[in-house]
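Sequence in, structure out. First:
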Amino acid sequence: MPINRKNKGNYFIFLEYILMVKEMFIKEKQLRIKIVFIGITIMFLLILGRIFYIQVFSYNKLNNLAEALWQRNLPITADRGRILDRNGKVLATNITTTTLYVVPNQVVNKEETAEKLASILECSKDDILKHLNKKTSLEKVNPEGRQLDSEKADLINELNIDGLYLMKEAKRYYPYGDVLAHTLGYVGIDNQGLSGLELQYDDYLTGKDGSIKYTSDGKGNRIKMSEEYEKPQNGMDLYLTIDIDIQLALENELANADTKYTPEQALAIVMNPNTGEVLAMGSRPTFDSNNYQDYDMEIINRNLPIWKNYEPGSTFKIITLAASLEEKTINLFEDSYYDGGSINVEGARIKCWKSGGHGAESFLEVVQNSCNPGFVIMGQKLGTERLYNYIKDFGFMDKTGIDLNGEAKGIMFDLDKIGPVEQATIAFGQGISVTPIQQITGVSAAINGGTLYRPYVVKYISEPETEDIIIKNEPYKVRQVISSETSEMVRFTLESVVSSGTGKNAYIENYRVGGKTGTAQKVSNGIYMSGNYIVSFMGFFPADKPEYVVYVAIDHPLGITQYGGTVSAPIAKNIMKNIISIKNIQPSKEVTPREYTWLDTKYVKAPDVLGKSKKEATTILKGFKIEYSGDGDTVIYQEPEANTYIKENSTIKILLN
């Protein structure tokens, strides 16, 4: 068709339209390209950011996850810290045992391996198969393969089967068995502390396990020459205030009492009154920490010296005595009291243990005779508030704070609930409940110069390799309760109780011993039990400057008259005699003579015959058996030494020049 002017105009319009569409298409294409480019750029930046985040922030986490796929750790258990006595003798240590681990992927013939292991470990084949078929990189054969003895470990090692690993494991061991068991406590199969010091100081005793690291391939097979050893870090050592030699003497006496009297319970404590250090502590019934699973939890969890609550009886009279002397409400020598056998307080008749009473007494004799009515008078002279405050100051209303778990607290009336009768009975040790550790701590304050100390059993904690001391416990003074002058008078009075009063059975010839007996009737459901007593004795020596306090309490001894003086005083005496022997304590130069009855074995002073002629010595030693050595005529040595107390008619050895 020919292009005319009109058609030509239409053509250009169409062409312009085409060009416009093309331009629009080009612009749209460019926009898409820009969008795509921007999108690609954003994605690239995101990838770079992610890579940066992974390389910088997540590297350790991902690296650990990757290593976990091809790295294996065979654990090496750290030794638990030892527990030692004050002289470095080991009370709790570790013995080396072996534990079986398996890498399931490395065990080729699981059925055969399970059968052989079951035979050695004396267990079910199915139980072993469960371990071998676990979908895990490393499996501990627990409990069948735990803490194996050397014989079983050798048999497993001789199998020479890939995938079986025998690793060292420490097992807790107590070389003295049931000695000090409640104080030491025990540990579980994974060496975690479950009671006693093992629990109280578990964070310090627990070490940090080591390991043997090796590399495995994708199938779990071990790659040779790829081991890395990480040394375990053993736990800290605990050094105690306990003296194991004194502890063994105490345990022996408790065992003898258990056999002789078959009591419901028995306990004893030895303490240094000048520091609060517990030197020995034990009770019956007891348990063997090595085999704790063989005992009732009721026995295991009751550390009687710090847990048991009971009316203390006459040993508590020491506190009433100390308060009365400090307040000067009595004069031991000038004031007197007539004991007719009982005293009436607000209609309540309080009896003396001696039928008919003791008659006229000085207050020194009131203490020597342990006269209940006399102590009621002491309490009345003090008054309720002062007596209450001294009981509080001596520590009987709070826990002592000893570093052992399971300590109980005594029971005491509120001040506003103490009437005349309650005050009277508290004065001689009834109507109040205390723990043994409160008792010995309070009495220590009464005789050591008047200072109440907090008791403790851990002397210090040390690093096992360098032996550097990490933590050290020092004597902690809680408060000054009475003056040193009053304390001196308390010591004098209690020494007279042993030489001339109810504590005679604790008297030790040539040594100055003080003490107080106690006989407390037990309570059940608020009613005093007939013929059922806790008999006790609190003793200390040397009486002029005490270094040892011994407390013994026997719960319901059978086959004997139940008095503290007849049961507990002899036990305490034997413990003190053992301490004298162990520590080689020399006799005292000045000893208060004992008052004897016709039933007692009498002791007399050995005469001095040094430098005398044989004839003179024979005359002076009349009444004694004499063994002469030498052929001279002058005495140059005698045994026992002069002025020491020896049994009447005993033998004196004489060496002549």
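Second:
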Amino acid sequence: MTEYERWLNTKLDDPDLATELKSIRGKPEEINDRFYRDLAFGTGGLRGVLGAGTNRMNVYTVRKATQGLANYLNSHGSNPSVAIAYDSRIKSDLFAKQAAAVLAANGIHVHIYPWLSPTPTLSWAVRCLKCSAGICVTASHNPAKYNGYKVYASDGCQITLQMADDVQAEINMIDIFRDVKRMDFDRAVSSGMVDYIKDEVIDRFLGEVMKQRVFTKPCTGLKVVYTPLNGTGRVCVTRILGMIGVKDITVVPEQEFPDGNFTTCPFPNPEIREALQKGLELCEKVKPDLLLATDPDCDRCGIAVRQNGEYQLMTGNEVGVLLLDFIARVRTEEGTMPEKPVAVTTIVSTDMATPVAEHYGIELRRVLTGFKYIGDQIADLEAEGSAGRYMFGFEESYGYLSGGYVRDKDAVDASMLICQMAYYYREKGMTLIDAMEKLYKQYGYYENLLVNFEFEGEDGMIKMGRIMDTLRKEHPAEIAGTKVTGWSDYQASECHDGEKVSPISLPKSNVLELRLANGSKMVVRPSGTEPKIKVYLSAKAGSKKGSLAEIENLRKACPRLLGIEK
């Protein structure tokens, strides 16, 4: 209440915030939700609901975080510089310019994109312009009420846990109103402290993406419907598809241009069918080979494929496995496979990647959830002088990358690869659905499902912590009638298989994995960006029907597992 009153009595330079603060006067629950904590800063930076308060995304929380970053950079090197990009979300451009104004006031040179840009182009700019850090203002695929602020290190990868902790320590010492240095943005531009990133940086980015194409033959005749979901992808994706010979591209008109309200897709996430509905409706008229969708910051990519006259969505796991097999298959055919090839995926991505990698002699590395950990593996290979060993990385949440030119998932690269893959199989008289079915018959039917449980507000945060603590201390002996034969606690870095206990070499993380006697498994973790617990289900059987039945058994068991049965 004290902090609320302070905000209420401060002359704020964003009138929306002042109006909101007055509207919640006398509403203790509303006030508490906005002020019970500071918005947490982590390896993913900030992410939260737009609005007034310390637990909201607004110009003041953005400025405070940027001051903390500025203090960190100035204490860790001389003449630091920062690249900034932003997406189509509400106030993204304002937050980007305010961050630049704070950095400039702290003597830090800023390179900012003059237009909204995909997240991977920020990772590229950091590396291309040799910056000390990067900021991308985006909430990725969250609903319209969210915005966020990702921070990147000098290698173009999202910051490490240690750097996040160090920046958070700086932020903790800053008063949100008194201690933030800031200059006028236009004056920062005219003084040379802020400059706009030139078109040639994007041209070079697209040139690097083109180097990742699997074959050079033009994809002539491939027909695509594309939706950028009112985000940043339209220019880069249509350009790269044109560069590989895809000329027949129809962009979904309702979702072609930037719109932070996402009026035709309240959840602008290519994992969700509703987000692709306008594209699917257009497909019924245009009859393309492929529907392609990128999320608002263009780092994730989803698809639907025409099969027997209907359009079927494919999951992130399916597309990841297909791309892994396709890249390895064609590079083997063309004699371009590197020695000791490496692919990287996450601990929650499909187990099907393992036998596919083994088939091609690829070393498959599994890392924690979050593409920054895949980026770390690319960096490690580069440091060893073995950058060419990296072939492909993917995560089940529709993120893909086939080169080391950036250190984050890239839907521009993914769009190009998927179209090349669709063309490759079309030349063989197959769709991507056909190709996936062939892999299932070869390796077994792997089924995966993500189940989300939401916990809003302060009470929700407490409840999520309690659920994870209980599971950690009292993990079940059986799930859905099947014995639990092993479990892994990534917080304690322990893997238990019967009586055998072995260490986990990954960084500590609040994740639990439960393995069942029939080969199924469940992975439970709180989301790092949303107020929810995520449960990843995995099953394998000799038929599609069998694997789906097991997944359904596991899904029904989830509420009891979490102790939230009604």
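Remark: The mean pLDDT is 95.
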